[in-house]
Amino acid sequence: MAVAGVLLDAAPTFAHCDGLDGPVVMGARIALQTGDLNSILIWVRPEDVDQVRRAFEQTSVVRKLGQQAHELADRYFFETLVRLHRAGEGAPFTGLKPAGRDLGPAIPAADKALETGSDNGLVEFLTARLSGGVHKQFQNAAQRKRFEPDDLAAGREYVEAYVAYVHYIERLYRTIEAAADGPLRERSSVRAQQ
Known about the structure:
This protein is about 75% helix and about 0% strand. It is built from 8 helices and no strands.
């Protein structure tokens, strides 16, 4: 059970799109500097474009009223965009997060792969994590499999390790399959309908 809890904790818990240094806010900053909304419209659903345009127009007017108004208007624009983006992901908006948060190693590795144009380092990183997790779970179950038939306590330890191992493998498999088939397939079918 403890291992299952660790695996659940390993699920993605950070979304860097809601950070002040995340890609949505960075796109919003570009839009405010250039007046070109394309840098931000890519982050929201088509049905939210009018709301983004209205927020941009309001922000542009209020920014001219002084430094405090400028900062408040920018914050409103950032929050609106992140809220709409998160809604498009089916995720709640829980406020803007500070810049410089620790996002763990996975998100920076994914971003670095896109920046460099190569996923080699990302694949190596993920493969090492996957291999290490599988090896640890396997070894735990395999070591406990060798118990005397009359030793019920040791047998129960084996069953606990076995269940944790099998659930770990099943969860990995489902995550891999869901990630491989999920968002890309859904987006492709949405684009085909438009």
